[in-house]
């Protein structure tokens, strides 16, 4: 399937999920992450979910990161440049939803992309080769291209891998792992 078809398919599948299913699947994803060997790094970037799009609830992963004393980064998006600015998440970080319902930090200590060790990546679908389908705006491809080459790119998905995404671009950044409620894919 191509990206457009996959976006339609997975938006529809997500729309069918109840709030209880989202919480159960999000907790299962966090439990899969805990069992994996991802925790020796320091700077972890995480997305905050757009609840209206029924994204993976990253609250459970945030609890794991804080429990392991990791430095957690969250972003603010610039829709004109399609770039993201990353801020250190602290106890005093205040969040506000932007016009696209993305929770973003109001302000804070800015951290450059090059310092980030691990990025948890939102997605709609992914394939068995580590390619992903997002919303199509290119924010994460731009962001990941700014990171150091060895940054770990970890997708989070409620659903299992597709066989193949047929229209992958050279500029698309592949995942290293993808965590689902049932398993961790390594690419």
From TrEMBL:
NCBIfam families: MTHFS_bact
Highest taxon, organism lineage: Bacteria
Source organism (scientific name): Flavobacterium macacae
Glycoprotein is among the record's keywords: no
GO biological process: folic acid-containing compound biosynthetic process; tetrahydrofolate interconversion
Protein name (database record): 5-formyltetrahydrofolate cyclo-ligase
Catalytic activity from the UniProt record: (6S)-5-formyl-5,6,7,8-tetrahydrofolate + ATP = (6R)-5,10-methenyltetrahydrofolate + ADP + phosphate
Residues noted as binding ATP in the record, renumbered to the chain: 3-7, 132-140
Cofactor(s) demanded: Mg(2+)
